[in-house]
Queue: 2 jobs
Job 1
Amino acid sequence: MSTLRMAAAAAEFGRDLEEDFAVVERLIKEARTAGVRLLALPEACLGGYLLSLDDSASDEGPPALALDGPEIRRLAALAGELTVVAGYCEADGDARCA
């Protein structure tokens, strides 16, 4: 029997994907250093949550990301052989969140 080290991460994520990827990269590096092989990131780690907590009318919501788009490829490249579970708003046929 082998052992699988898993970790779940909590962090703040918002609409800025570059900032989100900086946090994701840091969390992946920390997990890898700790010997983690499966890392669960928050459900809204790429683009933030659907609704703003302050009900701001200017909040357009998270970016809609394509399953085969550059952001998901970037996440996969950061993960490498580490299994990473990550949440994001998937684009529907009209490039809106599904």
Job 2
Amino acid sequence: MAIIRKSEILRRYNAAQTTLLEEANERRWAAVSLQKAFESFSLSEHYDIFLSHAYSDARICMQIRSMLIEKGYSVYVDWIEDEHLDRGKVSEHTATVLRNRMNNCSSLIYLTSDSAEKSVWMSWELGYMDARTGRVSVAPIIEDDEEFDGREYLGLYPYLDLTGDSFYIHRGVGSWVTFGDWMQGEKPK
């Protein structure tokens, strides 16, 4: 099994020389009126994947998002799609927007890392999507010299595995399914 190594994802991110992160940050900090943001906001837009992550893992998130988009999946990332949200000020509005987005997503990938352990939102997103769809996968992002120990509740879920340029969903040794088949409802065998 090929757990996602942080160095490999960052290498791919740097090799792609993408400017998406810079553009997203520029848009995020630009003076955008709330009225304009709400005019472009669509509660009905559907996504295949809700990518749950800690913002400090933004480069990793962007690379995994790009790789999934290359495979033909639509991926929701909050600070890209809903840049009008104020992450420094948690509110009912923020929870409502995220809940509506999750209601329009087929699955959730939970990027777990040292940073994720400090996130106040990620556990909430994981529980919400597990109850709503049951289609949740954990993506351990670890350093080259680490093993994935996980946290107790994360062991309930299958994990995302990157082998070459392909994603798989694993439940354990010898129990896996392609990511595409998982998205169609198949479970690791």
